């Protein structure tokens, strides 16, 4: 049974209720700790972007930076209302934001479908406003799409994966899909956190249900 605090943190905030934030962007560590590429735009020509919220963003980022074809990753906040929020503000459940990973990738080397497969398999998209022991709106499952091709691919992918989840006796997907959400970089100490703190917390846990690439989903 959730405590009062947990119950408060699982209630979505409205735009009117959200914290006002600030106009100044968060200072960003320009260079990715692992691959030494720039985390800030402009990115090389031909690169595409994706946003994924899978609960705690530390472990989620590590999943994606290891994929061949991913140019760079960064952690931050998206899906809410407060501009340039701090981590503490996001944790208050008063910004509407989720913890997310920005993935910049080369579509000639890795398909968006492959990224989606990783997204579905490596967390539980049926848990609503939580992931495991992490409870709150900031830990909700979220996909930020950019352009109609990504939106269509997500729709097909979700339908295919829901069939597999249902066949395995799992619940309904609760993943939020946001069209071109604003992305706000998280504080520098969060970026590639599990590289500098390899023994750090990572609560990601999938359902055990696979989402094979090419299972009725087009790029």
Short description:
This protein is of the alpha+beta class. It has helices at residues 4-9, 57-65, 87-91, 112-121, 148-167, 193-196; strands spanning 48-54, 70-78, 98-105, 130-131, 134-135, 141-145, 176-179, 184-185. The protein has a single domain, classed as Peptide methionine sulphoxide reductase MsrA (Peptide Methionine Sulfoxide Reductase, Chain A, 2-Layer Sandwich).
Secondary-structure topology with pairs:
Layout: H1 4-9, E1 48-54, H2 57-65, E2 70-78, H3 87-91, E3 98-105, H4 112-121, E4 130-131, E5 134-135, E6 141-145, H5 148-167, E7 176-179, E8 184-185, H6 193-196
Parallel strand pairs: 6-7
Antiparallel strand pairs: 1-3, 1-6, 2-3, 2-8, 4-5
Helix pairs in contact: 4-5
């Amino acid at each position: 049974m959730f405590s009062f605090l947990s119950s408060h943190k699982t209630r979505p905030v409205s735009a009117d209720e959200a914290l006002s934030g600030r106009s100044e962007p968060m200072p960003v560590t320009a260079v990715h700790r692992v691959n030494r590429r720039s985390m800030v735009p402009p990115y090389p020509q031909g690169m595409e972007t994706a946003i994924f919220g899978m609960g705690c963003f530390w472990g989620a980022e590590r999943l994606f930076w290891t994929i061949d074809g991913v140019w760079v990753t960064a952690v931050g906040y998206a899906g809410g209302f407060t501009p340039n929020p701090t981590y503490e503000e996001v944790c208050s459940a008063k910004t509407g934001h989720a913890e997310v990973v920005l993935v910049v990738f080369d579509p000639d080397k890795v398909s968006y479908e492959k990224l989606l497969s990783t997204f579905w398999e490596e967390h539980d998209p049926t848990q609503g406003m939580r992931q495991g022991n992490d409870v709150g709106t900031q830990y909700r499952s979220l996909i930020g799409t950019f352009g109609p091709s990504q939106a269509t691919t997500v729709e097909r992918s979700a339908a295919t994966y829901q069939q597999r989840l249902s066949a395995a006796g799992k619940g309904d997907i609760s993943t939020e899909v946001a069209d071109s959400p604003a992305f706000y970089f998280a504080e520098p100490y969060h970026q590639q956190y599990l590289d500098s703190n390899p023994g750090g917390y990572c609560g990601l846990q999938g359902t055990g249900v696979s989402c094979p690439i090419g299972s009725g989903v087009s790029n």
